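User: Just a sanity check before I run the rest of the batch. Below are the C-alpha cells for the first item. I only need the designed sequence back.
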C-alpha cells in the first residue's frame, strides 16, 4: 500500500506565546487534532483525497477559533463574506466560491461548484443562487457572531484600517484554514477556506478562492493550501509557483515550498506560509512568520500538531 498523508493549517501569523493562555492553546490543539483525525480516518478507510480535505476543512469551519465558516471576521458593514476553493489533483477539476454569506461550510459549496456545475468560480449573488438551487440551508447571522471577532471589528470600524489574517496585533491573529491530502491511490487534493479580513471593504477577495494563488493541486507535482498576506500571494501566484519549481526545475516538495515561502514571497513583501503534499505522501509546512497553526499525519505513524516555529 502506498504511503498516504494529510496536512491542515489554521492560519499563519505573528503569534506570541505570552499572549496565548495554556487553556486557549489547548483548545486550538484540540480542534486541529479533531480536523486532522477526521480527514485521516477517511484516507485510512480508502477514501479519496478530495473527500478528506473537504471534511478536514469542514471541522475547522465549524470552530469559532479560526477565521472561516463560523469563526469568520466582520466586514466594514458588520456582515460576513466568505471564500473557499477545492481542487482535485487527478483531474485538475476545481471549484471556488467568493463573497458568500450564510453558508455554514463554504468548502462544500466550492466542491459542489466543481462537481455539479460547468464552472470553476462563482461569486456573490450568483454563488448564493447556486447554493439555493441545491437547497443549502442559510444560517442566521447569529450563527456567525463571535464576541471576540465583534470586539476586534469595533476597534477599527469607521476607519480605513483593516486587519489581515496575519495581523501584527499580538492577540488578534486569525487567518485562513486549509487542508491537503494524498490518498491510498496516490491522488492528491487541496482545499482552502476563509472569512477574509476584519473591516474589509468593496468586496475584497484574497488568495484563498483563487486557483493557483491560494490553492492548487496537480498529481504531476503537489497540492498546496496557502495562508498569509493574500494580496502578495495573488501577485506571486504562490501555490502554482511551488508546483512550477517542482515540474520545471525538478525541485523536491520541501525545496520548492521553502524557496517560495522563505525567498520569493519575501522579496515582494509578503508573509505567511503554506502546507503541501506530493503523490508520494511527503509533507512540507513552511512559514516565514513566528508561527502557523498546523498539523499533519501520515500512514507511517508520523504525526505533528504545532503552533510556533519551535
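Assistant: Here's the designed sequence for the first item:
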Amino acid at each position: 500500500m502506498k504511503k498516504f498523508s494529510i496536512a491542515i493549517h489554521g492560519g499563519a501569523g505573528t503569534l506570541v506565546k505570552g499572549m496565548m493562555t495554556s487553556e486557549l492553546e489547548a483548545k486550538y490543539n484540540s480542534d486541529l487534532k479533531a480536523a486532522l483525525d477526521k480527514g485521516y480516518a477517511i484516507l485510512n478507510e480508502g477514501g479519496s483525497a478530495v473527500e478528506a480535505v473537504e471534511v478536514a476543512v469542514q471541522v475547522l469551519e465549524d470552530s469559532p477559533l479560526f477565521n472561516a465558516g463560523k469563526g469568520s471576521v466582520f466586514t466594514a458593514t458588520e456582515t460576513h463574506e466568505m471564500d473557499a476553493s477545492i481542487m482535485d489533483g487527478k483531474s485538475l477539476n476545481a471549484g471556488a466560491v467568493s463573497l458568500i454569506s450564510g453558508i455554514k461550510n463554504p468548502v462544500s459549496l466550492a466542491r459542489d461548484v466543481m462537481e455539479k456545475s460547468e464552472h470553476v468560480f462563482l461569486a456573490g449573488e450568483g454563488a448564493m443562487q447556486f447554493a439555493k438551487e441545491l437547497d443549502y440551508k442559510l444560517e442566521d447571522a447569529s450563527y456567525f457572531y463571535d464576541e471576540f471577532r465583534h470586539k476586534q471589528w469595533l476597534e477599527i470600524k469607521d476607519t480605513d484600517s483593516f486587519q489581515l489574517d496575519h495581523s501584527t496585533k499580538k492577540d488578534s491573529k486569525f487567518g485562513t484554514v486549509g487542508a491537503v491530502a494524498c490518498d491510498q491511490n496516490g491522488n492528491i487534493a487541496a482545499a482552502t477556506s476563509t472569512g477574509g479580513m476584519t473591516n474589509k471593504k468593496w468586496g475584497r477577495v484574497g488568495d484563498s478562492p483563487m486557483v493557483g494563488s491560494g490553492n492548487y493541486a496537480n498529481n504531476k507535482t503537489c497540492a498546496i493550501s496557502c495562508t498569509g498576506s493574500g494580496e502578495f500571494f495573488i501577485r506571486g501566484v504562490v501555490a502554482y509557483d511551488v508546483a512550477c519549481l517542482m515540474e520545471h526545475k525538478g525541485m523536491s516538495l520541501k525545496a520548492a515550498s521553502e524557496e517560495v515561502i522563505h525567498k520569493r514571497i519575501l522579496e515582494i513583501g509578503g508573509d505567511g506560509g503554506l502546507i503541501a503534499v506530493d503523490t508520494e505522501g511527503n509533507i512540507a509546512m513552511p512559514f516565514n512568520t513566528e508561527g502557523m497553526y498546523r498539523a499533519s499525519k501520515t500512514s507511517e505513524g508520523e504525526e505533528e500538531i504545532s503552533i510556533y516555529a519551535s
